[in-house]
Amino acid sequence: MTGILSLYRSTIGKKVVMALTGFILTAYVFVHMIGNLKVFAGAEKLNHYAEWLRLDMGYPILASFQGLWITRIVLLVAVGLHVISALQLWAMANAGRAVGYAQKKPSYTVYLGQMMRLGGIAIAFFIGYHLLHLTTGSIHPEFVHGEVYHNVISGFQNTLVSVFYIAALVALGVHILHGTWSMFQTLGLNNRRYDAMWRTVALLVTLAILVGDLSIPVAVLAGWLY
Amino acid sequence: MRLTLRIWRQKHAQARGHFATYRMDDVSPDMSFLEMLDVLNEQLTEAGEEPVAFDHDCREGICGMCGVVINGIPHGQHKHRTTTCQLHMRNFRSGETITIEPWRAKAFPVIKDLIVDRSAFDRVIQNGGFITAPTNTIPEANAVLVAKDRSDLAMDAAACIGCGACVAACPNASAMLFTAAKITHLGLLPQGQPERTMRVVGMVRVMDQSGFGGCTNLGECSLACPKEIHLDSIAQMNLDLIKAGFRRG
Ligand code: HEM
Ligand code: FES
């Protein structure tokens, strides 16, 4: 136990927390994307699926709503730990270079590093918006509880909302592209023999999530889904 | 070659630094970067000014003493990675303005001008960057067998000269590449096994305490490394530390 605590206190341990929670979040986003695609099966199928998530997920081991709440708690803890570690490492990195360089070389990786942090914050805000929009409906003018298909379609028929979702997905895509590869590196599962493979895995996971999720606002805006 | 140099001048650790601009009219493209600075210092001395302080020793690219950030890049360029002492002026254009800064990291405070204090690296080494070997007898050379691929990887990691370019290049001022190189070059060999756990725990702890930032797997370090130390080392160090976390005692 003391070993694990001192691991957590190290910079590497904080990255390990980010990698493990990042894995949980990425896996969730991936499964969530597959679930989202049910929208193409029509209102009845999607609404039925959503009801299953709420009432029957985990049946017969779990009672109604238990599977849903376990998922929510796991995600909340994962996002919490992920963001706390990110902020701690960000602060350490800033402290590590108190005086900056006068002449900076423009560099892809340096921008990528900033994208991970600023993009991460953008994703956090998006998660909040997304919950208020399609989970609670607090900011959705035509929200009807339980009518998931109607909520999604009428939500995305607002161009501004769709564009916002598309932008957030692109930010998430950049984050997951570097994040998924980074996860293997952080956990010590990478070396020059596996590098190309992990980069391909990261690319495929990212493309799947982007293509799957982006197809929905695009289909609604194009009028294919209504 | 005619050059304009913008060089960081700082009298001592507590002094406020500033950039000073110098002009040089007759730089040979065959000079090394440090020889160019030598010529500048002669000019300055003749003019009764304080010469620019910079670190150097072997001037052969093997000791790790030299190193400045040139136009935003530690050791000056990424194309043919090398140390500042082995960088030649033919890499620059006549008429160019060159900005020269010290390594920037809280753990590497400036001592004077372009010289920084890298003793944080020594403290990291002191906390595990060694093996216990009896010093009175010479071991039989073939008593401990090492597989060729392992010894090659260990030698790659052992090429680290501790110059600090990785820290200078890292957007997080992280010392992971240095520490990882030291940990893996011993950890890959049979001789390094007895202290493997102790080594990674001790070296990472001192690395963190010294005020370096964490790694975000961006790879700027490896790109700047004159010895081309690979990011694999960092993955290996991470795994060693994770394993150490789950070990008793
Ligand atoms: C659905 C949400 C998210 C997913 C799927 C996700 C996924 C990941 C993954 C897999 C990693 C790689 C971990 C590693 O380096 O080993 C990562 C890193 C990171 N994440 Fe997230 N993340 C999410 C949300 C956030 C949020 C809200 C923040 C807020 C600040 C954030 C900030 C970061 C940072 C700073 C890194 C480290 C970047 C680096 O290693 O270069 N992430 N993320
Ligand atoms: S002076 Fe020894 S490496 Fe440059």
> Which sequence of SSEs, written as H and E, runs from N to C of chain A?
HHHHHHHH
Main sheet overview of chain B: 5 strands, mixed
Strand content of chain A: under 5%
Strand content of chain B: 5-15%
Q: What small molecules does this complex bind? A: protoporphyrin IX containing FE, FE2/S2 (inorganic) cluster
DSSP E strands of chain A, number: 0
Descriptive key words:
heterodimer, A: 226 residues, mainly alpha, 3 helical TM bundles of succinate and fumarate reductases, 76% helix, B: alpha+beta, Ubiquitin-like (UB roll), Fumarate Reductase Iron-sulfur Protein, Chain B, domain 2, 2 domains, five-stranded mixed beta sheet, two-stranded antiparallel sheet, 33% helix, binds protoporphyrin IX containing FE, binds FE2/S2 (inorganic) cluster
Topology record:
The complex is a heterodimer of chains A (226) and B (249).
Chain A: H1 2-9, H2 11-36, H3 43-56, H4 66-96, H5 108-135, H6 148-157, H7 159-186, H8 195-221
Helix pairs in contact in A: 1-2, 2-4, 2-7, 2-8, 4-5, 5-7, 7-8
Chain B: E1 3-9, E2 18-24, H1 33-46, E3 69-70, E4 73-74, E5 97-101, E6 110-112, E7 115-116, H2 119-126, H3 148-158, H4 165-169, H5 176-187, H6 196-209, H7 220-224, H8 232-245
Parallel strand pairs in B: 1-5
Antiparallel strand pairs in B: 1-2, 3-4, 3-5, 6-7
Please characterize this protein's 3D structure.
The complex is a heterodimer of chains A (226) and B (249). With 226 residues, chain A is an all-alpha fold. Chain A has one domain (2-222): 3 helical TM bundles of succinate and fumarate reductases, CATH 1.20.1300. Helices cover 76% and strands 0% of the residues of chain A. The longest helix of chain A has 31 residues, at 66-96. Chain B has two domains: 3-101, Beta-grasp domain (Ubiquitin-like (UB roll)), CATH 3.10.20; 118-247, Fumarate Reductase Iron-sulfur Protein, Chain B, domain 2. Chain B contains eight helices and seven strands. In chain B, the strands form two sheets. Chain B has a five-stranded mixed beta sheet. The interface between A and B is large, with 45 and 50 residues. The structure holds protoporphyrin IX containing FE and FE2/S2 (inorganic) cluster. Protoporphyrin IX containing FE (HEM) is lined by residues 15, 18-19, 22-23, 25-26, 29, 79, 82-83, 86, 113, 116-117, 120-121, 123-124, 175-176, 178-180, 182-183, 186 of chain A.
